[in-house]
Design a protein that fits this description.
heterodimer, A: mainly alpha, 9 helices, about 0% strand, elongated, B: about 60 residues, mainly alpha
Chain lengths: ~200, ~60
């Protein structure tokens, strides 16, 4: 932010349009966090381009036009994200995970084994390292859905809305994330002999 | 669920996961109970789902 001409009196003026811009972004995106982020991006871009602003239109109109480009850009990214969700997490790659875990007759290839004293893991900082790494290994979109649902405790309906997917698609994605996370913890914690200090 | 009596582990595990999101229908509930009674692997999975949920909540704090 070094290029920011903080001394420029228009800096405060730009900032004063933020509430309007957030409302504008909210109307396009519905997701408050995304709206805040995209407004922040637009304001930074505006500050960098301020020298070129000739004042032919009102400051608000100029800011809004910058924001409109940022929103369109984000929407394009969201669409490609959504396609990624549909093509990977709920699609063939998700099926591949299920085929890895279940045989043709629908039985576990390796049935889940009892975990010894799982709650004791909560007290061990190494467990949380493993847990975080297992979360990171989830495919991007399903990791995001799982994180919002289980770590942040958001409602499924809100998550699906933000992701632009149906609720039942959300359930499928969450299910696959749970299967993958369970398998990862079993492999890297409970089976690895670290759980009981072996 | 037409052939609910023939619930396999793949479908049972999915129902267990869905039960974290919404109430199961009486038919789903019944089919799941029958399956769980006979399947130790899925009973373990059920407990591990609870563990995952609790671990995730704690991870966020």
């Amino acid at each position: 932010m070094s290029q920011m001409p903080a001394a420029d009196p228009r800096f405060a003026e730009i900032e004063s349009h933020r509430p309007f811009l957030v409302r504008y972004a909210l109307a396009q995106l519905r997701d408050p966090e995304q709206a805040q982020e995209v407004v922040q991006e637009a304001l930074l871009a505006a500050l960098e381009a301020l020298a070129g602003f000739q004042g032919q239109s009102s400051l608000r109109t100029w800011l809004t036009s910058i924001l409109r480009f940022k929103v369109l850009d984000l929407q394009r990214r969201l669409v490609s994200d959504r396609q990624r969700i549909e093509s990977t997490d709920a699609g063939d790659e998700g099926e591949a995970l299920l085929d890895e875990l279940f045989d043709e007759s629908g039985h576990w290839r390796e049935a889940p084994q009892p975990w010894s004293n799982p709650e004791a893991a909560f007290e061990q900082s190494r467990f949380w390292d493993v847990f975080g790494k297992c979360l990171d290994r989830l495919p991007a979109a399903s990791g995001r859905v799982f994180f919002k649902r289980e770590v942040l405790g958001e409602e499924t309906r809100a998550i699906c809305g933000a992701e632009g997917i149906t609720e039942s698609n959300c359930w499928v994605i969450l299910h696959r994330a749970r299967l993958a996370l369970r398998a990862c913890l079993e492999l890297n914690w409970f089976d690895a002999g670290v759980a009981d200090g072996r | 669920m037409a052939d609910s009596a023939a619930l396999d582990c793949r479908r049972a595990s999915r129902l267990l996961s869905i039960a974290c999101e919404r109430d199961l229908t009486p038919e789903e509930e019944q089919a799941l109970r029958v399956h769980l009674e006979a399947c130790r692997g899925c009973r373990e999975f059920e407990g591990q789902l609870r563990f995952l949920r609790e671990a995730s909540r704690r991870f966020g704090k």
